[in-house]
Structures are given as C-alpha cells and as structure tokens.
Amino acid sequence: MPTRRLVLTRSAAVMGTACSGLLLPELVRAQSGKVRVGFMLPYTGTFSQLGVAIENGFRMAINEQGGKLGGREIEYFKVDDESEPSKGIENASKLVQRDKVDVLVGTVHSGVQMGIQKVARDSGVLCLIPNAGVHAATRALCAPNVFRTSFSNSQPTRALGQAMVARGHKKAVWITWKYAAGDEAFEGFKESYTAAGGTIVKELGLPFPNVEFQALLTEIAALKPDAVACFFAGGGAAKFIRDYAAAGLKGKIPLYGSGFLTEGVLDAAGPAAEGIVTTMHYSDSLDTPRNKKFRLDYVKAFRSQPDVYAVQGYDTGLLLIQGANAVKGDLGAKPALYKAMEGATIDSPRGKWTMSKAHNPVQDIYLRVVENKENKVIGIAAKALSDSGLGCKMA
Amino acid sequence: MDLANFFIQLLNSVQYGLLLFMLAAGLTLIFGIMGVVNLAHGSFYMLGAYLAWSLSALFGSLSLAIIGGAALSVLFGLALEWLLFRHFYERDHLDQVLLTFGLIYIFEELRSILWGDDVHGVPIPELLSASIPLTDNLSYPVYRLFMSGVCLALAAGLYFLISKTRLGMKIRAGAFNRDMAEALGVNIKLIHAVVFALGVGLAAVAGMVAAPVASVYPNMGSQVLIMCFVVVVIGGIGSVRGALIAALLVGLVDTFGKVLLPQVAGMLVYILMAAVLLYKPEGLFKQ
C-alpha cells in the first residue's frame, strides 16, 4: 500500500524531470515549434538566377497560406550549394545535422543532387527536388522521403520524338553535350522517336560545356536530315541557336529540342531562335486563368517575370502545403505525410499534375514554337506523361 | 563523306589548329627561352576573351577591341613578369608550377569579381558575318576565315621576328646560352620581359578572336590549356615549328574524330599524344 509520502516523492520526481527539460521539449517542439525549412540551392555561379527563382516561387506558395505550414510558423535556413557536386554531401549534411531541418528543398544541378540523395536516404529527412532531373533520384536510388516536383531528364524529350514524327520528320540527327543530363535526354528521345517510326541518322556530341559546334554543324549540313533534335541549356543553348543559323541551317533543316533550349535565352539568341519547336512541361504563354494569376502575383511580389524554375519552386511549396495540412503541421508523422503527398494533385500554373509511384510528376508536356521572342504553346505533345521509374523499389 | 564536306571539315581543322598554335607558341616560347612552366597560360586566353567582350561593347567594334585588348594584355604581361615571373627563372620547376597553379585560382577569382560568372556571347562584326556557299547545303562562315587569317599573320610575324631580326637573334642566343649571351652584352632581362609579354599577348589575341565563336565563360582557360600542353608535348617542348605542326595535327584529329567517331572523340587526341610519345619520347621536333 503506497504511503502518502511515496506518492508525493514520485510526483515531485516526475514534475522535476519534466521541468528540467527531459520530457517537455519534445512535446513543445512537435506541437508549437517552428517548422524548419532548409534551402540548398545555387546562389552564386552560372545557376544563381535559377536558385533565386525557385526560392521566390516556394515562398510565394507559402505566403499565400499566410506564411504558415499546417498552422505552424516557419523558420528558413539557407546554404549556397555553388553547383559544386564535390560539396554536395557536406552542404546537405550541414542543413540536416547542424540546422536540424524538417524539410530540405534542393537543388538545380544533377551532380549535387546525387549528394543530397545520399544524405536524404541516410537521414530520412524529407527532401523536395525543385529542379534537378537526374534519373537515379526517382529510379534506382528513389526513396520514400524524396519527392521531385520538376521533371526527369528524359521527360520532355520523350514527348519530343512522337511530335517530330507527327510533323513529318522521319530522319533526324541528335546532338547534345556528352554528360549525364544529355545522355538521359537522349534516352527519352530515342525511345519515343524510334517507337513512332523515325530513324536517328546520327548521334553527335561534344564535352560539357564546350560550345565549339562548327565541325558538328558542318556534318549536319552534309547529312541533310529531315530535322535536328537537341538538348542544350543556358548560355551554350543561345550559342548553339546562333551558330545553327550562322551555318545556314535555319530555314533548311528544322531545329527541335528539349524546352530548356529556349528557356531564358530568347533575348540572347535573337532572331536566330524564331521557329524553333520545343517540348516542355511549362510555357510562359500558357493561356489559363491559373497561369495568368500566378504570373501577375509573381511580378507584384518580386518585380521580375517568373520562369519555369519559379513555377517548379512554387509547386514545391504547394506539395509541401498539402502534406503539412494533412498531418496538421506534424511533419514527424511520416507515413501519413508521405501518403498525403503521394496522393496529392497539384493545381499548378503549368496545369494539374500528380505524383508517380516513384515520386516524379505525371504531367502534360506542351509543344511550343518560338514566335516574336516568346515560347508560344501550339499543342500538347504528351498528355499525363510519366517517367518509367525503372528500378525504383521503395523500402 | 563527299568532297565538299571533307574540304570544309579540313578548313575547320586548320582553323582550330591555328588557334591552338597561337596559344601553344607562347607557352613553348616561355618555356624554351626562360625555362618557366606556365600553367596560367590559359588564363591569358580567358583574359583576352573577357577583354573582347567588354571592349567590343565599349567601342562598338571588335577590331578596335582586339587592338586595344592586345595592348592592354601586353602591358599586363610586362607587369606580371616584372612583379612575379622574373623571380622564378632560376628556381625549380616545382616552384614555378606552384606559382602558376596558384595564379590560375587568383585569375579565376579576379575574373569572377570583375566580370561575374555568366556565359556571354560576343557578336560577330556585320562585315564578317556572311557565309560563303560551297554547295547547296554547305557553306563556310567568313568569320572563321578571318580567324585563320589573323592567326596566320601572327605566325608569320613570329617567324620573321625570331629568325630574321636582330631582336630574334638575341632571343635565340639567350635561349641557347644565357651566360654567354649576357657576357656579349645582350640585355637578357629585357629579352625575357619582351618574350613573356609577347606570349601573353598571343594568348590574349587568340582569346579575343575566338570570343565570338567560342563564347566567353568561366574556366574557359583551363580547358584550352590542356589542349595546349598536348600540342607542346607532341611538337617537342621549346620548338615553335613543332608547335605549329602539332597544333594542325591535333586540329585534324579532333575535328574528324568528332564527326567520324563521335563515341570516342574525346580520347583521340590523347591517343595521338601517347602514340607520338611512344615513337618519339621527346616530341616530334625536340630542339
């Protein structure tokens, strides 16, 4: 029979433990502490503008919710990943171990993404990929806690092949940089183009980020294919477009590409870009109320025009909001959180999309043509296109 | 491959080869005459490209930019020689490698501070932007002929300077036997400064003429430097004639490799180098 004294001492012990902070903090942090969101994005270097656009988009989605996630305040942490693959693991670990983030948002460069992927798989921290299209992230190295809101490298080009054959180009030359993203883009093009009955006459490549295209353009002119398909991005893309016209190929052999060819380079490429047809999961000129509202709001908030990267950042925010709302802000409730995100339909400026089993967007790919320095949508190249998710086994 | 295609690819090869020669000539001169292994040579090429970008925007003319840029880079070369390199002529090659390797990082950082990290295009002058049609499909850009012309003119000038002038005689004497030349009244210090500035100028002009076709971007110097070393090693270290032959050879192998064997094109130049070194370990024209 417990004595009164025993009851008293035990109660005191429990109270003491609680007050000294051994029990209470867990409860407090789970219920009313801030959600810790970590951005691991490029803030310097060639991709710095992409990093800023992604963060802007993400914050815009959160701000539309009153700046909260599932009712909880947010604290942001930032690490500049410098687009430097050799620092990928170290930088991601900083956010996970030092800053103890609940969510890691990153990144742009596929090589850096592989470092993040390792940290995410080892630590189990929720990771949202707002750009990098590297296949392994949602294929062989996929993980329950890793979600991509952008594209896989072969997704735009998988839609490109069919579209080119449908437009009457049966013989094509493929040209790209020889590196992971170029090879993966080729995979999508090769599969869809040959399946639709097209023949790839020749596969040309040069090391990344080399931009001396002259010998290869001469070869294209000599081969006289029905069309040329390519994957280039950024400054190199503008250069390729200009050289293609300078070599006298524009107007003779139609140029096609993964949409990154004409994203953000139309001013630099000038008139040489007119008439280029590309496939992409977004276009500035998408004529939907959703896109128009997004673009107007973005311009008001950030005083600059949004691009595909801003949309991907925005969608990353939308996805996280849906997950957080389903678990009322308790991001520790992982099974319920992941289930909600897997089942989410994202009402994006690019159109509605859902998650594939391997956590890559199932989305429409648009067919676009450059007209008056703008990517005009001329149709849908592929409806609800998914990535194969080859080799993905969710543990 | 038909004849017209072959002919144009040949032009492409020669043009690329001549550009490599401009860089390799400076590299091999600086090594042959002063004994300095200059890993930062690619940075001068990058400097030229960025100067072309800035100055052509400033002057609105590429030719003015090239003239102004050449003058600036020669001055830069003189300053660099006076401040740093002349203290390293007598030192070990390892010290020189450390110095010039460090300089690569410093120049990249300065480039980043001065010009940023973006990729830039330099417009081709209106006058040179046409193409010469050869068949109904194939044509050759006039600007590339211009590039080859500039490189050839400089190569000829270099040949004339070294083998026909009094200064050239002193340079050769200094390279052959420094002490003897000095004893005979040749101002070796001045000769070294001139040769170094000349090498910097050649690399920078190469960068400037290449800027419109190769774009202007970070680390462009390091990429081209590797090719330069391949050329110098194949040609024989210290030999300007060897550098010319080797540069043309590398241009041929690289260009036709890209077109005929795209899968292994990246390796071919190195295979060529290995083959040459097996046959002639000192390079084709070791002096």
From TrEMBL, chain A:
Signal peptide: none annotated. The keyword Ribonucleoprotein does not apply. Pfam families: Peripla_BP_6. Residues 34-372 form the Leucine-binding protein domain. InterPro entries: BCAA_transport, Leu-bd, Peripla_BP_I, TAT_signal. The keyword Isomerase does not apply. Belongs to the leucine-binding protein family. This is Amino acid/amide ABC transporter substrate-binding protein, HAAT family.
UniProtKB/TrEMBL annotation, chain B:
One of its GO terms (cellular component) is plasma membrane. This is Amino acid/amide ABC transporter membrane protein 1, HAAT family. InterPro entries: ABC_transp_permease (IPR001851), BCAA_transport_permease (IPR052157), RhesusRHD (IPR002229). It is found in: Cell membrane. It is a multi-pass membrane protein. GO terms for molecular function: transmembrane transporter activity. Belongs to the binding-protein-dependent transport system permease family. LivHM subfamily. Its main location: membrane. Keywords: Amino-acid transport, Cell membrane, Membrane, Transmembrane, Transmembrane helix, Transport. It holds the Pfam family BPD_transp_2. One of its GO terms (biological process) is amino acid transport. The chain crosses the membrane at residues 16-37, 57-85, 142-162, 190-212, 224-252, 259-279.
